[in-house]
Amino acid sequence: MPLELLLRALWRMRRAALLATLALWLAGAALILSWPRRYVAEAVVAPAETTAIAVSSLLAPAPFPAAGLLDPRPTGNFAVYLGALRSREAAQLLARETGILADLTGQRASGPTGWLRGLLGLRVEADLDDVQAWLARSLAVTQSLTSVTWSVALAHRDRAAALDALQRLHAFAEAKVRADLAEVARRRVAALERRLAEERDLFLRQSLYELLAQQQRAGLIVAADEAVAARLVAAPAVELRPSLPNRPLLLALLALAAPMAVLGAASCAALLRGVADAEPRAAPGADRRSGSPRAPPRPDGPRAPEALPAGGPIPRPPRPPGEGRFGHG
């Protein structure tokens, strides 16, 4: 279909397209406004490796260099801390010490999905897998583009529950890293002490004493320091008003997407109808392209001979004398 005919068909459908756009936007806006909102609790942390307190810096004479600009991935104890935030043990902690299981069960039992689960006889009670899936969806870890700090945010429908869950997760991940480091130092100290009890060489005993002093220092700092994996730059705090989902942004995006969807559907409908339905009806007996009357159809059968002039056939002129049949004398 030519573009001119397509635009003409769309112009004839402008009223229906406007009504469909308005109906689509109102339906989407009602759905957006019906979504439950959530509070966001946020904390800003920095890797403890940046302050030279990690075990790697205690065991080596010089700290290991940090990752470059082309490799912004977390390393060291801070990577273990970030992994522990979404671990199975963290989900077990929330299920044991908070009311997240009851909240998830209420969400699964409410709304159309809850009615459908009850109709089909599906499971409604939330379990540990649901808690871990909720933790993976609701917990966001974002690296700052201007510094070495990281933002840890947790979204929850209840304001107090969001703050409490984030505090518990931070404390759990920090305690896990601390316990792992203390256990490593304890095992090394025990192994070195056993070796010292058996070793009789003076030079080897001197080296073993140096290693033992390093491990004892590492265990002492791990037990005494406030943070071994993530140092709090800003303590966990929760906003006063819920911000998720962002309703103004979603409504603005819907205002852009609804006309585009209706325009695409109208274009498809015009193309499916074809040129015959897109063009106005022509008068009977007129050409559809030009609108002029058509010529009457030519009758079938052999063409009639042309009428001869009155008086019979036209006489041929006489030949000149002496000219033969083929024009030669």
UniProtKB/TrEMBL annotation:
Q: Where is the composition biased (Pro residues)?
A: 312-321
UniProt entry keywords in alphabetical sequence: Membrane, Transmembrane, Transmembrane helix
What terms describe the molecular function in GO for this protein? protein tyrosine kinase activity
Q: Where is the signal peptide?
A: none
Residue span of region Disordered: 280-329
Q: Which residues cross the membrane?
A: 249-272
Q: Where is the composition biased (Basic and acidic residues)?
A: 280-290
GO terms for cellular component: plasma membrane
The answer to keyword Cytoplasm applying to this record is no
Q: What is this protein called?
A: Polysaccharide chain length determinant N-terminal domain-containing protein
